[in-house]
Amino acid sequence: MTGNRTALTFSTLIAAFLFASSAIGEMVTEEKEVVLTDEEALDIEIDFGLGELFIDACDPDKAFRLEGDYEDERFEYDYDYRKNKREGRLYFDISAESGNWHDRDVDNEWRLGLTDRIPIEFKVDIGAASCEMRLGGLSVRRLWLDIGAADCNISFEELNGCELDRIVVDAGASSVTLEELGNARFGMLKFKGGVGSSDIDFSGKFDFDAEADISVGLGSVNIIVPEHIGVRIYAEDTFLSSIDIPKRHFEEIERDFYESRNWDDAEGHLEITLQVGMGSANIDVR
Fold first, then answer.
1. Is residue 240 part of a domain?
2. pTM, two decimal places
């Protein structure tokens, strides 16, 4: 009887091991790169469903370098690069196979390195993933982000190499951090937050004039503004929401309209339209 139980247990373990091995799948490494030739601009479209994505600078002689490790049985991978006159267009899509989209315990890690020599436009769709974009020192002309149930960090640790016309962020049930936007040289930020928590940091050089349209539904947003810039805030809230604006730095000019006390003397200016539904917003001056 004991021998039968031992044999049964051993068989069960073998079957479980074989099932787990087949479920994990084989790890595949992909590497793509394109040498920069006569491109004068780069248009990037990314659809990233699940896993980890990291974007930063690479060898400036290369238009880009893409490398990743993923489980081939769990993910579908698509890539295309072509030139239209002197504009390079990169398309990258990796998504989970049917039935795996909800499983975050997977191996799917990618890094995209980009040249800093030409202007770049981003259109990035992030699903249930982790994304870090270190864009400082690059030349970002437009940035569009659609973020689902993700953890996303975008930073400009160095000055942007060109004027950034527009940043658009649509965040769902996600945690989003935008850092050192004062180095981004942006004209307009449009941020729509869902039920997650977000941090929007405008610190950096910030010697330009810009606008920010920030709306929050059920979530929360912490907005950091550097004390050396002039700030105007047009606040729209409800009895179910909360907006905290430090009176030490701001004067209420009229109902729901606030102006920093250094507005007339500041070199850089930021005008914020802030709409809060059932969530909260906090203004932090540093």
1. yes
2. 0.88
Residue 56 lies in a domain: yes
In angstroms, what CA-CA distances link 25 with 18, 20, 105, 268? 11, 9, 13, 53
> Structural domain tally of the chain?
1
- Residue 175: inside a domain: yes
**Would you tell me how many other CB atoms lie within 10 Å of the CB of residue 249?**
17
Amino acid present at 151 = D
Q: How many C-beta neighbours within 10 Å does residue 239 have?
A: 5
E-only strand ranges, 183-229: 186-193, 197-201, 209-216, 220-225
Give the integer Cα–Cα distance in Å for 132 and 155.
Answer: 8
What does 63-123 look like in DSSP terms, one character per residue? EEEEEEEEETTTEEEEEEEEEETTEEEEEEEEEEPTT-TT-----EEEEEEE-SSS-EEEE
Which tokens is 99 given? 């039935």
The CATH number linked to 36 is 2.160.20
Domain that holds residue 230: 28-285
**What are 175-222's pLDDT values in tens digits?**
999 999 999 999 999 999 989 899 999 999 999 999 999 999 999 999
